[in-house]
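Q: What does the predicted 3D structure of DNA replication and repair protein RecF look like?
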Amino acid sequence: MIVEHLSLVDFRNYAEAELPLRPGTNLLVGRNGQGKTNLAEAVAYLATLGSHRVSSDAPLVREGRDAAFIRARLAHGSRSVALELQVNRQGANRARISGNPVRPSELPRYMHAVLFAPEDLMIVRGDPSSRRRFADQLLVQRTPRLASVMSDYDRTLKQRTTLLKSARARGMRAEQLTTLEVWDDKLIQLGSQIIDARQRLATDMTEPLARAYAAIAGEDHSPRIGWALSIGGSDPEDDPESVEIGAAGATSERFREALLARRTQELDRGLTLVGPHRDDLVLHLRGLPVKGYASHGESWSVALSLRLASAELLRAESPGGDPILILDDVFAELDAARRGRLAGVVASYEQVLVTAAVATDIPAALRADAIRIDDGRILGALADHPLEEEA
């Protein structure tokens, strides 16, 4: 899978942008704040339907505009596909595939990309929502239909939580909430699909994660990955140390039992305390939780390994070839040994997009034909438009 050309209109700091891309490594160089990451973000958005930097779409639209446009021409072997996404500041986004209107959720069927950025350290060190977001974006790429399942779950969760808050304000007891069981049924039906898909993902990532970590860190620290589930009886959001990873049994049955067991607490707090929105992806090195025990270098290696393992999964499953691998300002955060190992790992991918503030941070093997980015403008080859510090 190759992105042959990327076009942007009113996306972030770009009024207009035309970026031709080639197979192999594409290096974008520019000082911080010039728009390198915006180009990487646009490519990744078509694949994941989300930004790695913000949770809403409004910041993606250029100031003073109502909508932004991302267009990409993809090569799938001998076939060419044109993707277009209209990102609206307000209201639903719109999409086209080769000129035909489709739902935006159809785009990940054609576009696979894996992006690694400094923000990914939060997957390892941040709160559970960062890890859930990482997993769910990968799930949508593996199984696009899950995008609508997750959207329906979020709407159901909001409705159910609104009912609980209203009941709390009115002092109602559980037996007075006759409509709560209806929302329970829908929450269980949708949430069980998400929980099961996440569990399968953790299982499938186990071996690729171990390989990627050994390749980047240069040693084997036995990384492990698994889900801490709120349907297990505790709450990973409130007390992650008290929750065992995984559990046996039918998900929907355990989900319903957990909801009934926590009914009183939910009414007291006006919150839905059971479901995939409360679960956590738990990571271990050498038998210890990565969060709180891993060194800075180990944390970086785990975060990067999660992305590389994601790329390996998509590569193995996609009939369209390799996912596009995007490394956004990553090399500056790594020591020389990890830079070299990472360059060796990514060299085998069909297309890699790399951004950097300083070209010399990038191993020489990935530096050919670097393109300079300056203040929302694509200026062409770095050799023709050198940065001051490299001139």
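A (community wiki): The structure tokens above were generated from the sequence. The two ends are 35 Å apart (CA to CA). The longest strand covers residues 2-11.
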